[in-house]
Design goal:
Layout lengths: L1 H23 L12 E8 L1 H11 L8 H22 L5 E9 L14 E2 H15 L5 E6 L4 E2 L21 E6 L2 E7 L4 E3 L4
Parallel strand pairs: 1-2, 1-4, 3-5
Antiparallel strand pairs: 6-7, 7-8
């Protein structure tokens, strides 16, 4: 019994020594990204302008939507730069231009609000290639709606059982991460005994 207590005491002393050594040798993280400049080309669509107008309406009367949005984006990128700088990533960000563009977004379905993410990204890439921007320029697209991706994966369970009828003797039902075979009996389906 005493041996176990000595082992526990020994391990406890070792574990207490590790954090104190780690904190005593701590130094400031290395700053990275000094001299890196990012020019932001901001694009937005009508849904984003409508959302911005709706959020800004209680604050003040909007007269110049584009000027107000440019100020809002400048503040946003200044806060983004400050966040990076606080993490010792010393980049400089500036808003190069703010433009309304409703032609880049591709709706997921005809006449629906959500955008098809991959196709919208392809449109944004093509638009960027035509602009001949410098290497330090990043295009940003702001939209008020959701950006989705069409997926057929789902839960990988068939939505319907082909040919399912009274002649189907066994089906598998997914229950959380476990499958339970179902056996057909007279007029109802009962869980079969687990294998």
């Amino acid at each position: 019994m005493r041996r176990i207590l000595f082992v526990i005491l020994y391990l406890g002393l070792q574990l207490n020594a590790v954090p104190s050594d780690a904190t005593s040798q701590r130094k400031d993280p290395e700053k990275i990204g000094e001299g890196v400049h990012v020019s932001a080309v901001v694009l937005y669509d009508s849904s984003y302008a409508k959302l911005h107008r709706k959020q800004a309406q209680p604050r003040r009367d909007l007269k110049d939507d584009d000027g107000d949005l440019k100020d809002a984006f400048t503040r946003l990128f200044n806060r983004t730069q400050k966040h990076f700088n606080d993490q010792f990533i010393m980049i400089q960000m500036k808003v190069k231009s703010v433009t309304k563009n409703d032609s880049l977004g591709v709706p997921l379905e005809t006449g629906k609000t959500p955008l098809n993410g991959p196709m919208t990204l392809e449109n944004l890439k093509k638009y960027g290639e035509t602009q001949h921007e410098t290497n330090d320029t990043i295009l940003y697209l702001f939209t008020g709606g959701d950006i989705l991706e069409r997926s057929n994966r789902g839960d990988r369970m068939p939505r319907s059982f082909p040919g399912a009828g009274w002649n189907l003797h066994t089906i598998t039902v997914a229950l959380r991460s476990r499958t339970i075979p179902m056996a057909k009996t007279e007029g109802s389906q009962q869980p079969a005994a687990p294998p």
